[in-house]
Amino acid sequence: MTTPTFEEGAGSMQAFHQDELDAGRLLVQRCSACSRHVYYPRTSCPHCGSAALEWKMPSGLGTVHAVTTVRRKLADGGDLNVSLIDMDEGVRLMSRVDNLAPDAVRIGQRVRARVQVKDGRGLVLFDAIEGGAA
Questions:
Q1: Range of the domain at 122
Q2: What is the pLDDT of residues 70-86, one digit of tens each?
Q3: Sign of the torsion formed by the C-alpha atoms of 10, 12, 16 and 22
Q4: Number of domains in the chain
Q5: Average pLDDT, rounded, for the chain
């Protein structure tokens, strides 16, 4: 994938990232210098300092690193989980596992990312993979 040029700094880079999510695409950056992936979007690699970052589509696979259940009134949408997901590319995202009851999400569980677009706004969610470790 081509790397867009950002003359206005990180603000426009984050806007590009959100535009991609709004279009239903999750992209992460990969450093051409050290080959490590980067997420959340940045102008330089936090691992080696290089500005040679390219946008790549990740595999979408990951593992639940940590999880907590946020208790909410049913009128407010009910309980939900907040999870830290370690993607196979080596980046960590905060999101939620959407296809399980909040208290059924387990550390070590394998998940797959998807982008949910609601009211024109993209959000990264994860679904548990059948047979994944827990």
A1: 61-128
A2: 999 999 989 999 999 99
A3: positive
A4: 2
A5: 90
